[in-house]
Amino acid sequence: MAQSKTAAVYETLKTELLDGMHTPGQKLAIDQLAARFGVNIGAVREALSRLTSDHLVTSQPQKGFLVAKVSVADMLDLTAVRTDIETRCLRRSIELGTLEWEGQMLGTWHQLSRTTPLIGGEPNIEWSRLHQKFHDDLISACDSVWWLRLRSQLFTQAERYRRMIQPHRRGGRDVDAEHRQLIELCLARDADGACAALTEHLNRTAQTLITYGARYLDEPEDVTKKNAASAA
User: What pLDDT does residue 214 have?
Assistant: First the structure.
């Protein structure tokens, strides 16, 4: 029972952190969270320790648990490393992918392309779930456990940035078309083309975050503008 309570607190807080519902640098008071979830302090502490391992929360002496900070520099570094790992996984997946792999990708893309990202100006949880599944499916035929493990960790961090800014993004990009292009290149077994398209897809997301994220990322506005100009 204790483990199930810890898991429930962990999953709820993880979703809230990914959705940007807690301010970066904000202290997460264990007693308040315990009262909110109706669990003991130990369950909350264990959940926060797991979130620290996910790098969504930090732990500091005398300060306790804090929401992990965000920044343009961190996001750009994350995007570069993620692109390297994810394209490696994609290339291997295209090489090894079966007809079942193709069918899984097509099915998920079909659902994703018919689901709206926002509902009433707020992130649609179902779209986020399908979006993650779509990107998971693309690289699911990769046979390297370590590449996939690293890729999963990087994806979680990238999701935090994407979800944080998503409600504030304004047009100018056809994400459905980008996803469709990825599917077509994968089905054609064009590894070079697919990796190039995925790289552009991830970099466009980074550029979008820079453009619309000045007030949400932990950097002065002039630094954000400078990074935006250099990434253009």
Answer: 58
